[in-house]
Amino acid sequence: MKKFVKVLVIAMCVMAITLTAAVSLAACGKGNTTVKIGVLVADASGAEALAFRNYYENYVEKNYDVDFVYSEEVGSDATKEMAELDKLLAENCKAIISFASCDRPAQIEKCESSKVYYAVATGTLKDEEYAEYKTKEYFVGQVGPSTFTEYNVGLAMGQYYKSLTGDNAIHSVALYVGFPAPEHVARTAGILTGLGMTYSAFGQSLSGMDIVGGIYGQDNGTANLNNIQPGDSGITVTTVLSMAPGAGLDEPLQAMLAGTAPDALLGVGMVSVFMAAQLNQKQIPYADVDAFTAANKTNFESGSMRYLAGKYGSSVGPVFALIMNALNGNVIRDADGNAVSLDQGYMVAKSAEEYATNYAKESGDSPIYNKEVLDTVIGADVTYQQIADLVASK
Amino acid sequence: MVNANSPVSASASINKYKVKSIAIAILPLAALAFLFGLFCIVVTANDYNLELYLTNVINRGTVLVLVATGAIFIYTLGSFDISLGASTLLCATVGVLTYNSTQNVFLTVLVMFAIGVGCSLLSSLLASVFRIPVFVTTVAMMSVLSAIASQLIISNGSGNGLSLPKTVFGPLDSPWIKIAVIAVWVLLCAFLFDFTKIGRREKFLGANPFCAKLTGISMYKYAIIAFVMAGLGVVLGAIFTLSYSPTVNTGTASSIGMDILVAIVFGGMPISGGPRSKIYASLIGGFSYVLLNLTLNIVLRMAGVDSQGSQGITQIISAMVFLAVVYVASMNYRAKNLPR
Amino acid sequence: MEQLITKQRAKEIAKKSVGTLAIPLVFAVVTLIACAAGGRTMISGISGFSNFLIYAGIVTITTFALSINLGSGRFDFSLGSMAVLSTLISIKITSSMPVSSGTAIVNLLLCFAVGAILGAVSGTLYVLLKIPPIITSLGVTLIFEGITYSIASGKYINGGEAMAIYNFMNNNWWFALIVIAVTLALMIFVFDHTKFGRDYAALKEGQKVSVNTGIKEIPNAIVCYVICGAMMGIVGFLSVARSGGLDGRSLSFGSIGIMFNAFLPMFIGGFIGRFSNDKLGYLLAGLCMSMLNSTFAAYINEVSASTQSIINAVLLVVFLIYLSNEQTCKDLVTGKLFKKWHDAIKMRSAQRKTREEAE
Q: What residues of chain A lie within 8 A of the CB of C51, using their CB?
């Protein structure tokens, strides 16, 4: 037996070496002119992330001479984020599209010193960060929802539910406030304001965007039920669910499902991942900020999803166009000579029909930003205004 | 024909044992050299930038090696500490907060030293004075330290973590400086470990604490020294974490505590500590582990597995290689009964 | 004489009962007062009770699994990875079956069986490689996590395949009770009333002597790992019942957190076990942990997650300080400690005086 194990170990090692050498040699001499674009991702498995990846790898790669090299999922670790960025640079990526936000200034500086084009594809830099880096030579720009847009997404959701009347009128809601991430906190502030509510922090009653500071400064980035003050709409918040590290979603979720059901659950993202099945089963209506995916189509049609503010796979088309232009020598700048900064909104569906209509606009073979559309903004003469107009139109 | 009981046979057997022992002793180093060669082949075959990739290896390995080298003093005693990742996170977090409120680098480093060594001393106090099993102490410390760090990061940051100006520790972010610091730290630890009574007594305590106690060696004293050395490793780790990435998030250094275990075992150190402990195990093992993971990652992607899928498979293969290396390295030390 | 024996026996029973129930009662009183003080309810309705039982089951059975190998000096990091992988394989196998009670039962049996197989793999590797169990468990954890990640494509699995378990367990609270009771009975039977259990106890106390007396250590160790795996399969099943999902994203030892929840109940259970049976002690400790968890849930808006972690860790440390320094603590409470210190100081000063006089 001992001998067998020894042989097995040696065989495993020899096999590994042979395999590695064979694959390496096979790769030798593969002359490749395709441009490599590195994609730095914080989350690689969420619906939105998968939709973006599907668009890049299965549509853009087929239509343009580019190769997207994806990083490993970096999560909430700035050190890993930097190590993965370094790896993409070592693999000769000529540009980086970033979906990771642990330390964006460090990413920009690294790409600048490596003379590699860089663009932000999800969320945007803080105002002071953008002001600092907007003139950097290799910082191409950012196309995504700004913090204010994220706030407005929540605001629209809150206002919609507040405006419902008659049989659809809402009296109680549960909130799912996600992680202590800037976009989630901004959406939460928007929802509360939209519902006509205020937030108590530091002895003050905060409203609007001020709520963001209150949630961070006082409550570690997670809205606290005790500090939510109902307004004059008569709507009350019965439960606040969160995925803050170690917060424990299970008990409050089970308690909510077991008790008197709220009239609706308003979520700031990834409700479909963590609790859609339970909500669908209990027929508790819910709203979320997510992506237009097949799973959410089912949630709308046969589940209890009633509202979705979502992105679609090809939302990341314009940022690709910016990078392609830069790689082809046309680094687009705005009127003041700064890197592009474009705010990108969400598509909203409030019924299964609206969802179906929006979902149909985006398909694998013909996405919203298909080749025909992208070609109008990829070229030597393309200007800032053309890209801005295109993003505004979608 | 040589009689099996003859002196010639006995000497041949001793020689064979010696050769085997030497072979096993140099196995971790040989494995590192082999992995390094393989890594270079794979990177070059893909037309990747070898220089940048090697810098990446150093960046990934530096913090692990610095913290693990200090931790070897604890492991030599036959104890282990899985809270070192959380200590590194807390140390870095408090460092950022201190600098941001004082703009004083000297004070920042001083506070980081106080936190790093303080956390370690607290662990050693609980373990040696209150006689709590070390593994449970470190589990509890891990929970407490990471909870405090998370609370500090979230309440003082704005969602993306806590940042320090790159100029504070950024100048240390050079591969040559990292190599130099690793060299100095490993040599210092090697001196203490191999040429002073601290190392000798720690090995003795690790091998037979009862016997060591009877000869007048204080377990408390050497446990405290071991934890202080680990604390110094944590401080260095935290400084180089901030030099590479000046932002700390809740996930920073989260896997260091367990990676240390894998790295030092990979480097040829017995987990039971004692006289066979080697200070350079962290250096060899840490870089071997990084090289193995990066090589596998590249090879799998070359074989058509995407980056997402390759993470799981890389982990499976590297774990199998880990077990195989440990198996071969421990062939000379098999006991009749199952090890515990 | 007979009366005296009966009296002594009654005293012994009373002592055992008090020793067994003291900690759970203290936990119950403290948590109930804490909830009442804030006008909260620790367990509300059948669903709350179901959650309470499921959580108690998770902690108790993890403690069973942790104690089996840890008690024998085998540290096993792979418990969490076995729980997740066995449940993932099970729900993948039953994915084409309807969401029904039958499917949930099949899932439980599959979790148990797959967990046992994973445990067998882990145990066989340990006895084959003959390297320290902590190292084997590091490798096994990484392998199981890697397999889980690959099967789940690094995703969190919610609904669909997991709903059969979730629905069944949340609609039939008594089933969790049955699972806990059967597991407890199984553990007591296997470890206290079989030859395997006696061999296990002997090996635990003295490995060398036991092996020399003819006890076969290798099969015993493998069976221990098999039982651990099967237990963790049940834990995985109960975890899905609790959350309705399964996290397939853990890599780089992300799964080991599951076992950390079992340390405190293991030590509390061990303490209770001195007065009755250690397995019963683990169950009672599991119930204590569930009471604490439900109290935290009742105060979710007041007690942050970080504070909960700190409270749990401090409880663990305080309890261990007590366990490791029991006599000193008792002396402290009864005042004997001060007397001892006083005597020691007195003796030293007397010695000094004698020395000074001699000089």
A: 250-251, 254-255
Quote the domain boundaries for residue A57.
35-145+313-344+368-393
Give the B window 121-150 contacts with C, CB below 8 Å: 126, 130-133, 135-137, 139-144, 146-148, 150
C297 neighbourhood in chain A, CB within 8 Å = 248, 251-252, 255
Q: Are residues A384 and A305 in the same domain?
A: no
Chains contacting A with at least 3 CB pairs below 8 Å? B, C
- pLDDT tens-digit map of B155-211: 776 666 888 898 899 999 999 999 999 999 999 999 999 999 999 998 998 888 889
Residue of C nearest to A273 (CA): C158
Give residue limits of the domains in chain B: 58-253
For the entire predicted model, the pTM comes to 0.88
- Residue C243 to residue A250, Cβ atoms within 8 A: yes
List CB contacts of B302: < 8 A, sequence separation 6 or more.
A23, A24, A26, A27, B42, B46
Superfamily of chain region B58-253? ABC transporter involved in vitamin B12 uptake, BtuC (1.10.3470.10)
Mean pLDDT of chain C: 89
User: What is the count of structural domains for chain C?
Assistant: 2
pLDDT in tens, B240-255: 999 999 999 888 888 8
ipTM: 0.88
Cα C351 from Cα B198, distance rounded (Å): 34
| Inter-chain CB proximity C48 and A255 less than 8 Å | yes
